[in-house]
Design a protein that fits this description.
There is one protein chain. The protein is an alpha/beta fold. Helices cover 49% and strands 8% of the residues. The chain contains ten helices and five strands. A five-stranded parallel beta sheet has the order 2-1-3-4-5, sandwiched between helices. Helix 2 (18-40) packs parallel to helix 6 and helix 3 packs across helix 5 (91-111). It is globular, with a radius of gyration of 19 Å. The protein starts with 5 loop residues before the first helix and ends in a 7-residue tail after the last helix.
């Protein structure tokens, strides 16, 4: 674990105040390092189907899984998930209720100087890989019908979190959707993404409360730029609460905080408009 990481050469020490440096590093991890390692990762694994028991991990389980992801044994994190799935917990519940919070735990521990940069990077990469492997192994080929729906998953500009977007995209892919994840740092890039192809549904993650006042306007402009004039819009993310379920306030079709429910709602929205010509 002593080999140098290319990110150290890109950013370097002394690039600014510690807090600013950490924010910059996390941004680079999300937007560049993790996607690069995703392309190089293997796409193999075995896992159960999506049905199963509800899983709500306690803080000690979240911390234990996060620590396993940066240990010398690269399979430790995967083996931990295997044990949970053997207890009949639902795959979607495990991925979204454990992996996401574990990634946040890594960031919090780094911010508190409890772990180092190498542990954060290694942990995030392994979480990303295990998420892809489990979800890919759970896909059902019989669902890949000619009328396969297409979905664009993105963050509202300013609240990018690639790991969370990828977990959601993998769950939709497991349900038979064709999914594109867009890492757009500006509204213009997001507009270009919805215009670049025919998408039945847009899933937009909102991570900052400060983004809520302008959210309705953003949704309206996304609809106007979309190639599909009847595109369905689903909102999610940590900035939204159950009280936001009245999505009409933001101009969306629904606010879905439960990924399983989001798949059902998205399918209903996708079926209401004719496919692309």
């Amino acid at each position: 674990m002593s080999q140098s990481h290319p990110l150290r050469e890109e950013v370097g020490a002394g690039a600014g105040p510690q807090a600013e440096c950490k924010r910059s590093l996390l941004s680079v991890i999300d937007s560049r390092i993790v996607p690069q390692l995703m392309r190089d990762s293997a796409h193999a694994g075995t896992g159960p189907g999506p049905e199963g028991l509800h899983f709500s991990p306690d803080p000690s389980q979240i911390a234990e899984f996060a620590r396993l992801c940066f240990q010398e044994n690269e399979r430790a994190g995967r083996q931990y998930l295997d044990r949970l799935l053997e207890q009949d917990y639902a795959l979607s519940e495990v991925l979204l209720n454990l992996v996401g919070p574990a990634a946040r735990w890594l960031g919090d521990q780094w911010d508190q100087d409890q772990i180092g940069f190498s542990e954060v990077t290694l942990g995030l990469v392994r979480m990303q890989n295990v998420t892809h492997d489990f979800a890919a192994s759970d896909r059902h080929p019989q669902r890949h019908a000619p009328d396969r729906f297409r979905m664009l998953v993105a963050s509202a500009p300013g609240s990018q979190h690639l790991l969370g977007l990828t977990m959601v995209s993998e769950l939709f892919a497991a349900d038979g959707w064709e999914v594109r994840v867009e890492v757009a740092s500006t509204e213009a890039a997001l507009f270009a993404a919805v215009q670049s192809g025919w998408f039945d549904v847009l899933g937009l993650s909102v991570g900052l409360a400060e983004q809520l006042p302008g959210l309705a306007d953003l949704v309206a402009r996304l609809r106007s730029h979309a190639r599909n004039p009847g595109i369905g819009v689903l909102l999610g993310g940590v900035a939204l609460t159950p009280a936001d379920a009245a999505a009409s306030g933001y101009g969306a079709d629904a606010v879905c905080l439960d990924p399983v429910a989001a798949i059902r709602v998205a399918r209903r929205l996708a079926m209401r408009t004719p496919p692309a010509a």
